[in-house]
TrEMBL record:
<dbReference type="InterPro" id="IPR013849">
    <property type="entry name" value="DNA_helicase_Holl-junc_RuvA_I"/>
</dbReference>
<feature type="domain" description="DNA helicase Holliday junction RuvA type">
    <location>
        <begin position="1"/>
        <end position="62"/>
    </location>
</feature>
<keyword id="KW-0233">DNA recombination</keyword>
<dbReference type="GO" id="GO:0006310">
    <property type="term" value="P:DNA recombination"/>
</dbReference>
<dbReference type="GO" id="GO:0009378">
    <property type="term" value="F:four-way junction helicase activity"/>
</dbReference>
<keyword id="KW-0547">Nucleotide-binding</keyword>
<dbReference type="GO" id="GO:0009379">
    <property type="term" value="C:Holliday junction helicase complex"/>
</dbReference>
<dbReference type="InterPro" id="IPR036267">
    <property type="entry name" value="RuvA_C_sf"/>
</dbReference>
<comment type="function">
    <text>The RuvA-RuvB-RuvC complex processes Holliday junction (HJ) DNA during genetic recombination and DNA repair, while the RuvA-RuvB complex plays an important role in the rescue of blocked DNA replication forks via replication fork reversal (RFR). RuvA specifically binds to HJ cruciform DNA, conferring on it an open structure. The RuvB hexamer acts as an ATP-dependent pump, pulling dsDNA into and through the RuvAB complex. HJ branch migration allows RuvC to scan DNA until it finds its consensus sequence, where it cleaves and resolves the cruciform DNA.</text>
</comment>
<feature type="region of interest" description="Domain I">
    <location>
        <begin position="1"/>
        <end position="64"/>
    </location>
</feature>
<keyword id="KW-0347">Helicase</keyword>
<dbReference type="Pfam" id="PF07499">
    <property type="entry name" value="RuvA_C"/>
</dbReference>
<comment type="similarity">
    <text>Belongs to the RuvA family.</text>
</comment>
<protein>
    <recommendedName>
        <fullName>Holliday junction branch migration complex subunit RuvA</fullName>
    </recommendedName>
</protein>
<dbReference type="InterPro" id="IPR011114">
    <property type="entry name" value="RuvA_C"/>
</dbReference>
<keyword id="KW-0238">DNA-binding</keyword>
<dbReference type="GO" id="GO:0005737">
    <property type="term" value="C:cytoplasm"/>
</dbReference>
Amino acid sequence: MIGKITGRIDYRASDHLLIDVRGVGYLVYCSDRTMAAMPSVGEAVALYTDLTVREDLMQLFGFQTLVEKEWHRLLTSVQGVGAKASLAILGALGPDGVSRAIALGDWNAVKVAKGVGPKIAQRVVLDLKDKAPGVMAMGGTMAQAEGVEEAQVIEPSAPSRTKTTPQTQSAQAEALSALGNLGYGPGDAAGAVAQAAGEMPDADTSALVRAALKLLAPKG
């Protein structure tokens, strides 16, 4: 299994890169969002990867973060969601947006991805809703491990959409943990943190916890 690629970009296509790793070229397919964040031809890049093997095909898919890779793994586990649909969802929403949509049960957000219809979007939300808290919780630890390396190796040339930073991933994971310590269930906590993060994308842990507690407070 090829879990990571580090090398220099030989060329860029619309949906994939050719990355030279010590004289060996690897074709790596990426989402639109990831492609937009890649540096220019000739520059260094590092991507986490997932290798798909079929009888007639081998394809390598690249991701900026381990959280994005984990969502790809989970998305492709849903019946009817292949690698192409997974990359379309991640490209449209980003890993943080996927976490938020699934935690909130917002299948309409998933449906905006190219080629993803209402039935598939609903199935994604229903099948993965219980997975969202775990991915959001692991985001903080992964972000801490990835942050320095990404800053050194990947320099976005002209990203078209806001990227989730290691700091925001960590804040969401810490807020989720804090709510769990207060006795809230993983699903309720994940939904509240996701909604709060969507409304305040740059909020720190304390602000997310306060906002989430307001959302979780009994109504009436």
